[in-house]
C-alpha cells in the first residue's frame, strides 16, 4: 500500500461472480500498549509520540489529558491555548502533505504545472507549521514541552508576533491552494451516504472541537444523535466478529474531516454537500476547508496577548485509577485509555482513527470494485482499491501500534 503513513498491504481477492473482497493489513504489530505497562505515568507524553511521526502532538496531548482526567485537574487557559495551537499546526501539516503529495497523483484532473506549484506552496506551509511547533514544543516532531499539568515553556511576546505573521502568510497560501483544487470533478456517487454509517467526533457547545468537549455520534438522517462523556465510550463502541471497531448495533463508524463536518449544530448544509458525490473529492475539499479554518483559528489564538502568560502549569500528583484522554487527530478521533496505580501505568489502550475507519475503508474499496462491472483486471483493481483507501488518509503506523 503506497503513499500512506506506515507500512501495510492490501489483500484483493477477485472472483468471476463479482464477490470481490479488499482487506487492509498492517505489516506488523508493535505491541506499544504492552510496552507502556509499568512506565511512570508522567513520562507517557514523552513516549507515545513515537507511535507516529505524522501525529505525535495528538498522541502526546491525549496522554496528557488522560493523566489529568485521572487526577481531576484542569490546566490553565494559557497552557490550553498553546496545546490547541500545536494541535492545529499538526492538522494543517498532515492535511497539506496528504493532499499535495499522497493524494495528488490520484487527482488526474490537476495539470502537471499546477501540481508542481501546489507542491511548492505545500512545502512552504509545512515549514510554517514546523516553525510554530518547534517554538512551542521544542522540536517539530516528538514534542518535548507537553507535560502533565500544562506546558514547560511559555511563548514570549516577540515570538508570538513572529508566529502570527507566519500564520497570516500561510493562510494566503492555503486559500490559493483551495482555489486551484476547486476544479476537482465528482466522478462517482459517494458510497458513504447509507443509513448504516455512524459519524463520530468531539464537540463542545454544539460545535465540532479539536481539543476539548464530549463525543457525539450521529447518522445521516440524525435518527441517531448521542452526546456522551469521553469516559463512557465503551458503552457505544464494540469490536465485531471481524475484529473491526463498530457502533454497538454493528454499524460502521467514520471519523475524520467528513465526520467532523457533520458533528456541529450547523452541519445540515454539509450533509447535502457530502451525499451523492465522489468521496475522494469530498474528503479532499473538507481537508482543505479544515486547513483554512485551522489557520484562521491559529491566527486568532496568536492575537491574544494572554497566550504569552507564564502561568502555564499546575501542580500534579501521582495518578491512581482510570484516565481517558481524547483529541481530534488529523485523521479523526484519538482515544487514550489508561489504568494508573500509584503513578505507574497498569494498563494502556490506544484507539486510533484508522481503527475506527477500517471497516468503512474496506467497504468503500469493495464498492468501488463492484462498480467496475466486467472490467476487472488485476492492475486496474489494485489501482482503484488503493485510491479508494487513500481517500481516508489511513495511518498504518498508528494502526499497528
Can you walk me through this structure?
The protein is 43% helix and 18% strand. With 401 residues, the chain is α+β, with helices and mostly antiparallel strands. The chain has one domain: Cytochrome-c3 Hydrogenase, chain B (Orthogonal Bundle). Helix 4 runs antiparallel to helix 5 and helix 5 (112-137) runs antiparallel to helix 6. The longest helix has 26 residues, at 77-102. The mean pLDDT is 89.
Q: List the total number of helices.
A: 12
The tally of domains stands at 1
What spatial form do the alpha-carbon principal axes imply? globular
Secondary-structure element series = EEHHHHHEEHEEEEEEEHHHEEEHHH
Mean pLDDT score:
89
Determine the CATH topology: Cytochrome-c3 Hydrogenase, chain B
The CATH superfamily label reads Cytochrome-c3 Hydrogenase, chain B
Q: Which percent band covers the strand fraction?
A: 15-25%
| Distance linking N and C termini | 17 Å
CATH class: Mainly Alpha
CATH architecture field: Orthogonal Bundle
Structural class: alpha+beta
Give the strand tally.
Answer: 14
Rounded Rg: 21 Å
Q: Biggest sheet, open or closed, and with what strands and sense?
A: 5 strands, mixed
Q: Helicity, in percent? A: 40-55%
Which regions are unreliable across 5 or more consecutive residues at pLDDT < 50?
Answer: none
Q: What is the structure about, briefly put?
A:
This protein has helices spanning 32-36, 44-47, 56-71, 77-102, 112-137, 157-180, 257-263, 268-274, 279-302, 353-370, 378-390, 396-399; strands at residues 8-13, 21-26, 146-147, 150-151, 197-204, 207-208, 214-219, 225-228, 237-239, 245-247, 252-254, 321-329, 332-341, 344-351. By secondary structure, it is α+β, with helices and mostly antiparallel strands. The chain is globular, with a radius of gyration of 21 Å.
